[in-house]
Design goal:
It comes from Niastella populi. InterPro entries: Endoribo_LPSP/chorism_mut-like, RutC-like_sf. This protein has one domain: 2-Layer Sandwich (60s Ribosomal Protein L30, Chain: A), CATH 3.30.1330. The chain is built from 3 helices and 5 strands; from the N terminus they run αββαβαββ. The chain has a 5-stranded mixed beta sheet with strand order 1-2-5-3-4, covered by helices on one side. The two termini are 16 Å apart.
């Protein structure tokens, strides 16, 4: 199965690809690499999931928000690159978690995105290197922001 077929089998929907609200590009291709800027959790109606993990949101809600960020990133790929099948593998993921100072399960939250990528591109190609870190705040009070780098075919 290719990535598009795996995604369709999951029964998930892609939200609209976000447009930049600042001075940056949502994606950049350099040779055989695709870089995605930090993405937030965009819903189907273009609104953002908001809230800090450890106060307004619990850990499971944070993990679902991270999966929604992953879906938003897939939407950017499909919208601007054309197909999930253009991605050979995930190289790196940086996950930033908006959380209370006592929250320590950042990797668990970012697994929401990493598990989605593994399901789409398979464990060999869908899992890259990763960092998951906590932040005192993120833009618009989103719970998770993720950026990534991919290798293209």
């Amino acid at each position: 199965m290719n990535a598009e077929e795996r995604f369709n089998k999951l029964g998930l929907r892609l939200p609209p690809a976000p447009t930049p609200l600042g001075v940056y590009k949502p994606y950049l291709i350099d040779g055989k690499y695709l870089y995605l800027s930090g993405h937030g959790p965009v819903r189907d109606d273009k609104t953002l999931i908001i809230g800090r993990i450890g106060s307004e949101l619990n850990m499971e809600e944070g993990k679902l928000a991270a999966r929604q960020v992953g879906l938003t990133m897939l939407s950017t790929i499909v919208t601007h690159i054309g197909s999930l099948d253009t991605i050979k593998r995930v190289i790196k993921v940086l996950g930033m978690v908006n959380c209370t100072p006592d929250f320590e399960r950042h990797p668990y939250v970012i697994n929401g995105c990493s598990e989605l990528f593994a399901a789409v591109w398979g464990e060999e190609n869908g899992i890259g290197v990763r960092s998951a870190v906590g932040f005192g705040s993120l833009p618009d009070n989103i719970p998770v922001e993720i950026e990534a780098m991919f290798e293209l075919f």
